[in-house]
Amino acid sequence: MRVHFVVHESFESAGAYLKWAEDRGYTISWSRVYAGEALPPNADEFDMLVVFGGPQSPRTTREECPYFDSRAEQHLINQAVTARRMVIGICLGSQLIGEALGAAVCQSPEKEIGHYPITLTEAGLRHPLIAHFGSPLTVGHWHNDMPGLTDQATVLAESEGCPRQIVQYGNFVYGFQCHMEFTVEAVEGLIQHSQQELADAQGKRFIPLGRRDARMELPANE
């Protein structure tokens, strides 16, 4: 299987998704957009598209972030959906899926950074690919927003701070607002580049108290 990763920042890591693909011997390709690497020209280039997170929003313009082209990524997602490719979006990636399919990104009720449980919905508990996760399941979080919902979307998991943690948009299309890809490297990279964000967010319900607490509270998948 050919897996293509779209990564938006040098401090964002493919983490456990990369290990999953490598362990299975899949062919891996990359669009490290922060380094100027191009997106695939079309969905013929891959069997599975994984779009990762970042500090951007689906509404971030090229003027605001020259290397991030939200419209181009949404176009690629639409091509992949039409071609019946597997599409996974994480954090920003999940919001891009929603926008690509016509559902506007929304602000989450709570900003979440840390290590908090998600709970499977009734649909999640019945889902053949999700039910085995168990419920509740403690996972990583680092977000302000959450993906929009199309008429066909099904919420498979939620948390106390965010009602849209895992969303199914189609048979092969899933958005994860939560971070199941976190490894030690991924967590450390985020913390190193987010000291001001952590300081500015102090006092909110789902925010660690500082760098040390952030490292302790963010899960790492080995």
**Helix content range:** 25-40%
Task: Describe the main β-sheet briefly.
Answer: 9 strands, mixed
Q: Find the structural class using helix and strand composition.
A: alpha/beta
Query: What is the annotated CATH architecture?
Result: 3-Layer(aba) Sandwich
**Ends apart, CA distance between termini:** 23 Å
Number of domains: 1
Mean pLDDT: 91
**What is the spatial order of strands in the main beta sheet?**
2-1-3-4-9-8-7-5-6
- What is the alpha-carbon Rg in Å? 16 Å
Overall outline: globular
How many H/I helical runs?
Answer: 7
Domain Glutamine amidotransferase: 42-184
GO molecular function, one term: GMP synthase (glutamine-hydrolyzing) activity
Keywords: Glutamine amidotransferase, Ligase, Transferase
GO cellular component, one term: cytosol
Report on the structure:
The chain has a single domain (2-217), classed as Class I glutamine amidotransferase (GATase) domain (Rossmann fold, 3-Layer(aba) Sandwich), CATH 3.40.50.880. It is built from seven helices and nine strands; from the N terminus they run βαββαβαβαββββααα. The protein has helices at residues 15-23, 70-82, 92-100, 122-126, 184-192, 195-200, 211-217; strands at 2-7, 27-32, 48-51, 86-90, 106-120, 137-146, 154-159, 166-170, 173-176. Strand 7 (154-159) and strand 8 form a beta hairpin. It starts with a strand and ends in a 5-residue tail after the last helix. Mean pLDDT is 91; it is low at 209-218.
Keywords:
single chain, 222 residues, alpha/beta, Rossmann fold, nine-stranded mixed β-sheet, 9 strands, ChyE-like
